[in-house]
Specification:
The structure is a single chain. This protein has 418 residues and is α+β, with helices and mostly antiparallel strands. The protein folds into two domains: 172 residues, GAF domain (Beta-Lactamase), CATH 3.30.450.40; 226 residues, Phosphatase 2c, domain 1 (4-Layer Sandwich). Helix content is 40%, strand content 26%. It is built from ten helices and 17 strands. The strands form three sheets. Strands 3-2-1-6-5-4 form a six-stranded antiparallel sheet, with helices on both faces. Strands 7-8-17-16-13-14 form a six-stranded antiparallel sheet. Strands 9-10-11-12-15 form a five-stranded antiparallel sheet, covered by helices on one side. A hairpin with a 6-residue loop joins strand 2 and strand 3. Helix 1 packs antiparallel against helix 2 and helix 6 packs antiparallel against helix 7. It is elongated and about 105 Å long.
Length: 418
């Protein structure tokens, strides 16, 4: 071995040692990848370097960093880099355009001409290929066996470090998402009533428990002219941040409109039009909107796809259900928003509205709780307060589920005449 070759080997080892030191000091992925790029350019004496990371979920490789190019993304089944990722072996191509495996689309999209290339997989601590380092156009000649050895050394140094940084980056993103969801939950919970309303001659209570950080259900109470009380319970399709935004919009629209007119049908119809314009029919909301007139002991209401509504009569212990009066909101324009026959409550009578998370709660065998079990709770506790009845219904469905997890949001309103 000549003196020049020996000096070159020393320089290459020095670069590798520098990379190893930077790997230990770097706590972010992009600076790490830039260090790997610069090391590969120096050690392998080439024109360009591309660091492809693996997107296992989509079965693709994508360039997190590429010298002189934007993001490149392609299926792992294509190209030289794809073969290195699939086989876990170094691929040395002395003449790119003479090799059928070469993906020419990348050159076409970047305007760069690849003569030769060396692709080597980056393997994590568990043997999983986390990406591919591809170097292009060795200056003056094709890549040699010695270059392959250097590439293997660089690969062993970088694979575990890249995997570590990817995991840390993923963890940081999840933590950020948790914080964002926590803020969203706080905002959504702040929109719920701070306390149950006080209505002369009535006991009124509401309750909500989302299945996720944020939920697709909401309820609300709001004062209306003439001492009346507005009642709202809504359930958007699904649960999570998307439905939470939808149901919050629904609440805001209905509350604003209810302050301008006593016509329940007009309020419901206009709320539907606004939601339909925004949602485009892709999502929908089931909604109960009622008005309690305590002086008359009466509830006027509309139900857009929300049911069954439950009525308990204390005088004979009977229970009945009322159907929805129109289709859910946001599905179609021009719905029939005709109010139902009012419900008059006598002493001890109750009007109960719950979301389907209650009666659709299923046990391990898939049997659903059903409405009748909720009625049983009411029959056994006719003198309980509205808030206590909601608590007892929640206990009943969780007991019925025998350890199954809450799969849907739970929301309830009970109006009980004293």
């Amino acid at each position: 071995m000549g003196e020049a070759d020996l000096h070159q080997q020393v320089r290459n080892l020095t670069v590798l040692l520098e990379v190893a030191r930077e790997i230990g000091a770097t706590v972010e992925l992009d600076p790490l990848l830039r260090s790997i790029e610069q090391a590969a350019l120096r050690v392998l004496d080439c024109e360009r370097v591309t660091v492809f990371l693996s997107d296992a979920g989509r079965g693709e490789l994508f360039s997190r960093l590429a010298t002189g190019a934007g993001e490149i993304r392609f299926p792992v089944t294509r190209g030289i880099a794809g073969e290195a990722a699939r086989t876990g072996r170094i691929v040395n191509v002395p003449d790119a355009y003479a090799d059928a495996r070469f993906n020419r689309d990348v050159d076409k999209s970047t305007g760069y001409r690849t003569r030769n290339l060396l692709a080597f997989p980056m393997t994590g601590y568990d043997g999983q290929v986390v990406g591919v380092l591809q170097v292009l156009n060795k200056r003056g000649e094709a890549f040699t066996a010695e270059d392959e050895s250097l590439a293997a050394a660089l690969s062993s140094l970088t694979g575990v470090a890249v995997q570590r940084q990817m995991l840390l980056e993923e963890y940081a993103e999840k933590q950020k998402l948790r914080r964002d969801l926590s803020i969203a939950r706080d905002i959504q919970q702040s929109l719920l009533p701070k306390e149950n309303p006080r209505v002369e001659g009535f006991d009124v209570a509401g309750w909500n428990k989302p299945a996720d950080e944020t939920g697709g259900d909401c309820y609300d109470f709001f004062d209306l002219p003439g001492g009346r009380l507005g009642l709202l319970l809504a359930d958007a399709t699904g649960h999570g941040i998307g439905p939470a935004l939808v149901v919050s919009e629904c609440r805001a629209c209905l509350r604003s409109l209810a302050a301008t007119t006593d016509d329940l049908g007009a309020v419901m119809s206009r709320t539907n039009e606004l939601l339909y314009e925004d949602l485009g029919g892709g999502r929908f909301v089931t909604l109960f909107f009622g008005v309690l007139d305590a002086r008359k002991g009466r509830i006027d209401y509309l139900s857009a796809g929300h049911g069954p509504l439950m009525v308990y009569r204390r005088s004979d212990g009977s229970c009945c259900t009322l159907p929805a009066t129109t289709v859910p909101l946001g599905i179609m324009a021009g719905i029939d928003a005709t109010a139902a026959e009012p419900v008059t409550l006598g002493p001890g009578d109750m009007f109960i509205v719950v979301t389907d998370g209650f009666f659709e709660w299923a046990d391990a065998e898939g049997e659903q709780c059903g409405v009748e079990r909720l009625f049983d709770v009411v029959r056994r506790n006719p003198g309980a307060s509205a808030a206590d009845l909601i608590r007892l219904m929640h206990e009943a469905v969780t007991e019925f589920g025998r350890g199954t997890a809450q799969a849907d949001d739970l929301t309830a309103i009970i109006i009980r005449r004293l």
